[in-house]
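The instructor's notes for this session suggest beginning with a concrete chain rather than abstract definitions. Hand out the sequence below and ask the class to guess, before any prediction is shown, which regions might be ordered.
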Amino acid sequence: MIVQELSEKYPVTQLCEVLGVPRSSYYYQAAATDETKLKSEIERLCGEWPTYGYRRISRQLQRESKEVVNDKVVRRLMNELGLQIKRNARKRQTTDSNHACPRYPNLVLELEIDRPDQVWVSDITYIRLGNDFVYLAIVMDVFTRVIRGWHLGRSLHQELTLTAFTKAIASGHTPTIHHSDQGVQYAAADYITLLTTHNITISMAEVGAAWQNGFAERFMRTLKEEEVALSDYRDFNDALNQIARFIDDVYLHKRIHSALGYLTPIEFERHWQHAR
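After discussion, reveal the predicted structure:
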């Protein structure tokens, strides 16, 4: 552009007046050059975090560059680059609510959760392994989104949920309320005994109302989209190692959450503790 070539010798305002072009056109060209770099950064982050929306990509850019990036610009560029999120179909059944075990009411439906370990939620999902399936049980703290415990097993037997919860307690935390669906793994006598032994109040979602265990469901969806769908596990041990890496490293320490002010779960929990 002529204005850019002459701007080293003359003031931009004077050049634009003489040439009869708006001053904004000079700065627009400079911005266009920056946008190329921004596109490259967005492509890189979308490759690393394929399920991030434009708001979370904006915050990740800010975390890395320490500069504020406009959400609308990021959304426009993601659309231009064809980087919109695509959701996968779900899901194999893992919940068997057809049993004679005791049922418990939902105590968290209208509950205001304002501290760590006030409510833990538990859930189970399946993971395809060749022609077979393995199963993951998790225990999450709702307030911080920290996974307190998890276990990968080869079957849906009671050991799956018992081991995950035992690991969660071993972390040194104990919840006031434990919330789950009404699946037999959570309603069976051994699991209920484990909860009552630690003086934990029991809460369950209504049958057929998966949204009432939404925090756990959302984590499972994240795991499926950001780890399982992008992996081809060779065997059980490979699946175990890769899922451990995702939960213990990526999810807890690197993946930012909009509900946590775009902090990771570990960062959010530490900030809360330091503010006490």
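Then share the key points. Residues 28-33 have pLDDT under 50 and may be disordered. Residues 119-275 form a domain with the Nucleotidyltransferase; domain 5 fold (CATH 3.30.420.10).
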